[in-house]
What does this fold into?
Amino acid sequence: MTGHEGPVTGAVRAFIEYQRLCYVATVGPDGEPNLSPKGSLKVLSEHELAFADMASPRTVANLRTNPRLEINLVDPFLRRGYRIKGTGRVVDDPEVLAVVGQGLGHDYPVRAAVRIAVTEVRPVDSPVYLFTDTPSDQVHAMWQDNYGYHRDPEGREV
It folds into this structure.
């Protein structure tokens, strides 16, 4: 081990654990894009992620013919997040299945898991951060008002 941190840094790990909902993009053999929401994304290591296949027939079929994927995680209030690129492999490894099944809140059937070798992680920032000096807490409050949702970043009602 070189001591070099992988693309899934501590900040990325914390964001995945906080955000929970992500969108996974794949492409079918006919070139048709597929975008699928996932609520089970977990960090396996600095180089690997995984999510559960509970109701993902098109995502799984696409990955079997073209393993490339992109994951998008964005906090809708902070207007920040990450774009994660990699390759996915459908597995039935009991250890990975146990990890992706943790914390789902229900007894959902986990058919398989998609194990992702992460090749790139890039931040996503709203133009509000690029073109203004608006602090993140003000951006958060503005979008909470926009959605009529009043909770702080830790999930407490305000």
